[in-house]
Design goal:
There is one protein chain. By secondary structure, the protein is mostly helical. The chain folds into 3 domains: 131 residues, MgtE N-terminal fold; 101 residues, CBS-domain (Roll); 172 residues, Orthogonal Bundle (Tetracycline Repressor, domain 2). The protein contains 22 helices and 6 strands. Helix 8 packs across helix 10 and helix 17 runs parallel beside helix 22. The termini are far apart.
Length: 451
């Protein structure tokens, strides 16, 4: 929805609730779906959300909770009675319900689960036992599996029986008597085969699969790289535990991209929607980086103090300090962003550091040459003389080369040290290059101007 549409819908909802127009809310529910409601609900007052949950059609509320961030859905459930919360949780997809339960205090989660159907509660407990950032924490047990002894007609009957509960029926998994994964067959091939054909003859035995303890981002990449609709999750003994579907993967990739962007901006990931983040939380997430950068930036002043004699002798050198440190920071930010993104996509690794640095050196040289020519013209416009212009031009080339080298190598080296390369944020690269760039500037000035 556009901002204008969202604003208009919010105004309509406020009016309908204020005027106690229950039928109006239900009519609105026929026009917009759970995803749209999920955009609107966080912007409503808690009292309005409580009314909305009572007036929306019963089948819409679990779908709405599935679309919300788990922390938001958990906050809503905590406003309800334990029985009401249990009823909504057991109507949600098990993987989504498990994510919500993990956001609840342990005692409240236990009180809600004991009020649910035993089978549903057991599924949620099993899923919640996996770490949230693993494939097991992402999977759903709602899939269709048949025995290797089944026929095509029996597999189709299983689909008809489970279609309402299964996350997807595009793939049917084949297991042995111990539920070990043997293969997978597509719905398309199954429907085109004679009913008495054994599924063992139709299945693809070499099935892409992922371990339950694998990182969820690795599982997401595996699914997308193979262009799959779903990927099976197995334990160490190849027992089929669940599946991860493409909609789950989309959420993971969005979350990982958001986390990387927040880190590149010099902030710790929020792990909850910005709208729900309190001011103290935002301060805690940002202050550590700001203090680190503040301390690191202090050495820039030390560099200027050490070269104050040169600045006093040739005052014109100070005119170009903002230009030079800004250029170094910008080149470094561009480079580190590209390298970190390439690492996230699996395009580069530590073994590639040599050619990455060599490639970025060439890029830095060309960028520096172009900007050096512009800087020389700028120096001429300021009337500072060709000698100062030469110093500035040479410094820009040197800083571009230096900044590109640091930004190209540092993320890969940090990965080797088991540090998230996304922490090599643009502000950190800028800080590193500022002081060293000034040293380069004044040393070149000494050589060229004979200071």
């Amino acid at each position: 929805m556009t901002t204008a549409e969202t604003t208009e819908l919010l105004a309509d909802i406020h009016d309908l609730i204020r005027e106690r127009e229950r039928d109006g809310i239900r009519g609105l529910a026929e026009q917009i779906g759970p995803a749209e409601w999920a955009d609107l609900v966080p912007q409503l007052e808690p009292a309005e959300v409580a009314v909305l949950l009572q007036w929306l059609p019963d089948e819409e509320v679990p779908l709405l909770l599935e679309e919300l961030a788990p922390a938001q859905a958990a906050a809503i459930l905590r406003t309800l009675s334990r029985n009401e919360a249990a009823g909504l949780l057991q109507e949600m997809d098990p993987d989504d319900a498990a994510d919500v339960v993990e956001q609840l205090p342990e005692g409240e989660a236990r009180d809600i689960l004991v009020r649910m159907r035993a089978a549903d509660a057991s599924e949620i407990r099993d899923l919640a036992a996996y770490d949230a950032d693993t494939a097991g924490g992402l999977m759903t047990p709602a899939f269709v599996a048949v025995s290797r002894d089944a026929t095509a007609s029996e597999a189709i009957a299983a689909i008809r029986r489970l279609v309402e509960d299964a996350e997807t029926v595009s793939y049917i998994y084949v297991t042995d008597d111990a539920r070990r994964l043997l293969g997978v067959l597509s719905l398309y091939r199954l429907l085109l085969s004679p009913g008495d054909t054994p599924v063992a003859e139709l299945m693809a035995p070499h099935t892409v699969r992922v371990r339950a303890d694998a990182d969820q981002e690795s599982a997401a990449r595996l699914l997308t790289d193979h262009n799959l609709i779903a990927i099976p999750v197995v334990d160490d003994d190849e027992h089929l535990l669940g599946i991860i579907t493409e909609d789950d993967v989309a959420d993971v990739l969005e979350a990982e991209a958001t986390e990387d962007i927040e880190r590149l901006g010099g902030s710790q990931p929020l792990n909850l929607p910005y709208r729900l983040a309190s001011v103290p939380l935002l301060v805690r997430k940002r202050i550590a980086w700001l203090l680190l950068l503040f301390v690191a930036q202090a050495y820039t002043g030390t560099v200027l103090q050490n070269f104050q004699g040169e600045l006093t002798t040739v005052v014109a050198l100070s005119f170009f300090i903002p230009l030079l440190i800004g250029t170094g920071g910008n080149v470094g930010s561009q480079t580190v962003t590209l390298v970190v993104r390439a690492m996230a996509l699996g395009e580069v690794a530590l073994r590639d550091v040599g050619w990455i640095v060599f490639k970025e050196l060439r890029v830095g040289l060309l960028l520096g040459a172009v900007m050096a020519a512009v800087a020389f013209g700028r120096a001429a416009m300021l009337g500072v003389g060709p000698d100062i212009g030469a110093v500035v031009s040479l410094t820009i080339i040197a800083i571009c080369l230096w900044s590109a080298t640091i930004a190209a190598a540092l993320p890969l080296l940090l990965r080797r040290l088991r540090i998230d390369p996304a922490v090599v944020s643009a502000p950190l690269i800028t800080t590193l290059v500022d002081g060293t760039g000034l040293i380069i500037y004044f040393e070149i000035a000494r050589l060229v101007l004979g200071l």
